Amino acid sequence: MAKHAVVIAGGGPTGMMLAAELALAKVDVAIVERRPDHVLVGSRAGGFHSRTIEVLDQRGVADRFLAEGQVAQVAMFGTTVLDMSDFPTRHPYSLGIWQNQIERIMAAWIAELAVRIYYGREVTGFAQGDTGVDVELSDGQSLRAQYLVGCDGGRSVIRKAARIEFPGWDPTRSNLIAEVEMTEEPPRGIRHDATGVHGLHRLEDGRTVRVVVTEQQLGPSSEPTLRDLSEALTAVYGTDFGIHSPTWISRFTDMTRQAAAYRAGRVLLAGDSAHVHYPVGGQGLSLGVQDAVNLGWKLAQVVNGTSPESLLDTYQDERHPVAARALQHTMAQTALQRRDKRIKALVDVVSELASMDEPRKRLAGIISGLDIHYDLGEGHLLLGRRMLDLDLVTADGTLRVFTLLHKAKPVLLNLGEPGGFDISPWADRAQLIDAEYLGPWELPVIGAVTAPTGVLIRPDGYVAWVGDGTDSGLRDALTTWFGTP
Ligand SMILES: Cc1cc2nc3c(=O)[nH]c(=O)nc-3n(C[C@H](O)[C@H](O)[C@H](O)COP(=O)(O)OP(=O)(O)OC[C@H]3O[C@@H](n4cnc5c(N)ncnc54)[C@H](O)[C@@H]3O)c2cc1C
Hints:
Bound molecules: flavin-adenine dinucleotide
Helix content: 25-40%
Distance between the termini: 35 Å
Strand content: 25-35%
């Protein structure tokens, strides 16, 4: 039986990001992926938001995605575009890039990191004990791991086998999404009516049309057909535009559910396996990638023996509330997509409010992920929030903070007297950088904050300790997050 420290079920965006994080921390990680390769049939998600671009920037790979995508102010609440060009970030925009491109780029990245992938096999179940997990595969083989992470999407086998409850709301509305050819020229753009939202978009090849259409009634859970698509289009547009030659037809719904627990012993969940919602607002992929970045370094430290298993509990403590809030917001936005006259009145009121400065910033902060605040206790406003990508002046020249995070290792930034901190007991785990920064400290949504004299940054880019001229609390923070020396 092959052994790995961590086995990840599912190599979608969440599974690949987690694998990259673990590989950067030198953990022996393997992915089991049902598909025969990383080619994704159909374009699926249309991009990601600012914080996800930052997270990829922290690992030095954002440029790969930026080179293929299109930056735009497309963060929306309902139908109001939330301009975030005034947000203090290097990436004050969203990135339009299809999920099949995202997965191709990620697959190339994890190949560079030498992540082992078992393609063309499914995880069918597992048995966990005190020392590890036996992971059962569809080809009759098993893998042995210290930990198993279910990144296997909304219908997660891992979540079900772990008997983790998935409470929430049943679907009330379904959409068909497809890529087809058409004999007639379709009208472009988005249309709203009393049923929901519909959109037709010609893809870059000039031949294929991406169709998203809300069905008149909630569709069944079976695979949709070309006939279903024809009927749904005709109900909305009066014609099916002569659709033919589909390469992909799928159905998604507004079912909204969240796993009651993100961990059951040695088994964890991340991404869509832990939360599903209607794709309005385009947050699912971003949530999954950020789950992975929160979990990766913690799991690596537990596997590498530097931190106790209890560190894994902070994964659920921090990420469950973030997804719960996203679910609440997607349900609110889903309601705004229906356009009978009464709901149109509500849409108009919400649009007016959302275009005012403070609500705009608040909503854009949530959708972009830039306002995420993990509850790490009382203290400076930076505590538990994302570290800013400042231009630092160091003895080696000018350096961006995010560059220091490329290897996914903790960083203690000393912004006071050079040599002012001693973290030699943690020297094998954390980097100590003496630097100068004289510019403003400004957080999205919150605004200006007082300049600290030191900042302890976790590998995921969140601030674990803030110095105010002394090193009070620093040793506790280092021990809590990076283990006893
Ligand atoms: C129409 C649409 C538009 C969207 N638009 C956006 C958007 O603009 N922005 C955004 O952020 N999100 C968007 N989303 C959501 C996004 O697609 C998902 O949230 C995202 O794919 C979740 O990633 P994941 O890796 O967690 O799960 P998945 O992408 O579902 O990946 C799961 C992987 O696990 C594999 N797998 C499943 N079961 C097993 C098993 N038992 N064993 C082994 N492998 C298995 C699957 O083959 C798959 O590769 C959209 C979704 C839809 C449907």
